[in-house]
Amino acid sequence: MKNKIMLLTGICSVLLMVCAFQIKNDQHHNESKWTKLFDGKSFNGWKVLGGEADFVIEDGAIVGISKVNTPNTFLCTEKTYSNFILELDLKIEDETSNSGVMIRGQYDSTRNRIYGYQVEADAKERAWSGGIYDESRRGWLYPLSLNPNARKAFHLGEYNRYRIEVIGREIKTWVNGVPVAYLVDETDQKGNIGLQVHNILDVKAHEGRKTYFKNIRIQTENLTPLPFEPGHFVVSTVDNTLTDYEIQDGWKLLFTGHNSLGWSDVDLQGFPKEGWIIENGELSIMESDGSESMTYGNIVTLEQYAAFDLSFQFKLSKGANSGLKYFVTLEEKTEGSAIGLEYQILDDKVHPDAIKGKNGNRTLASLYDLIPSKKQYTKRIGEWNQGRIVVHPNNHVEHYLNGTKVLEYDRGSNEFQDLVSGSKYKGWKNFGQAPKGHLLLQDHGNHVSYKSIKIKKLD
Q: What are the extents of the domains in the chain?
């Protein structure tokens, strides 16, 4: 028995040694995939672009120092990168400071300006760290109103670990291990990596404040992306497509860009033969006489929905009016549009409906005639806006416009019913409280286009 015990002990020791060797070998292999972008001692491989803020090296860290009356300043890699995984530690000492990491950055030498994708470092109350901003171009692409749980990941006055994956057309970010943003975009395929010191205009009190960067490393070959947890919203500027992640997460396209499958007129007799056209990946209602649903008519989904997350893009012509309605039962008989809760789609500056109603509750992204939207980011007429409607299983509803939440309410609550009683819908019994309904795109006699309509059931 003693010999057997000694033999087993010996075998276990050998196995442990083999395992330890394998773990050490794997760690060495994983570490060997990384390349340091900063040696901790010099600015070799880096250059300052865009502004005149200062960068120094202190205790193995790059320190950006704010300066008055200079634009955003970036310490950029001399080398450009296409596909990569980037990790670094970033620290902001004061909440008034703002910073970020430029990825695939573009340089305009005529203006000495850096522009393009930037992963945010935001220490203020808004707390959008890890969100994706398009510097000097399109503005916010992935604000953290789309992922409010990630707003707590960044810590002021401490080093925060950033992980940024840029692979093909997908950009994903993590802050301190928390998944933050998931963007699909094809605008830039290659560019610089840059460390930002944000401009402070002429605010002398903010001069000299510091932002720290260290442990900057990159992988460029044999990239293995980390899995994103299910349930995160994906922003995509690639028309009428879904990522594998979205498909696995339950998303479906309601418009493929090629046909009218799944849509019909309000009589459920088939797709309209005129007025609604599908061209260049867009679903458009043509201009007519400006009347509500009296020329070509509305279209609805054949399927009905209860709780859902709906995302869509829309483009207005000058002075246009339309709307996306939900919980449309088609049971009410009306002369104009079918009755339902409506995400208002409107040219607020030109169309007269914007000044009707109460307190702006007929303006863009409002719950029409009930709740006004608190818009932050709107696009110019002729540009694409992203709308989003989320109806939770508990009947809490949210409207978004271009990534930011513009209103929320509880369907069927006392507050909701009070709003209905003072609106144009007061004569309709249990308005907006149907357990499920169709989605509707409105013909209001103006040219409006839609694309990238996708939905995820939440019930």
A: 36-219, 241-457
The residues near 356 (Cβ < 8 Å, ≥ 6 apart) are 362
Of 208 and 44, which is predicted with more confidence?
Answer: 44
Please give the CATH superfamily to which domain 36-219 belongs.
Exo-inulinase; domain 1 (2.60.120.560)
Pick the CATH number of 241-457 from 2.60.40.3200, 2.170.130.10, 3.50.30.20, 2.60.120.560: 2.60.120.560
Residue 21, pLDDT > 50, answer no
What is the C-alpha separation between 449 and 385, in angstroms, rounded?
10
CA distance 384 to 362: 20
User: Which residues pair with residue 46 across a beta bridge?
Assistant: 77
Contact 197, 117 (CB under 8 A): no
Separation between Cα atoms, residue 197 and residue 101, nearest integer Å: 10
Is 0.85 topped by the overall pTM?
Answer: yes
If one counts every other C-beta atom within 10 angstroms of the C-beta of residue 322, the result is 25
Confidence band (pLDDT; 50, 70, 90) for 9? very low
Both structure tokens of 101: 């990491």
pLDDT in tens, 336-375: 678 999 999 999 999 999 999 999 999 999 999 999 999 9
Helix (H) or strand (E) segment spanning residue 113: strand 113-122
Interacting residues of 269 by C-beta distance below 8 A, sequence separation 6+: none
Of 115, 114, 256, 237, residue with least CA distance to 186: 237
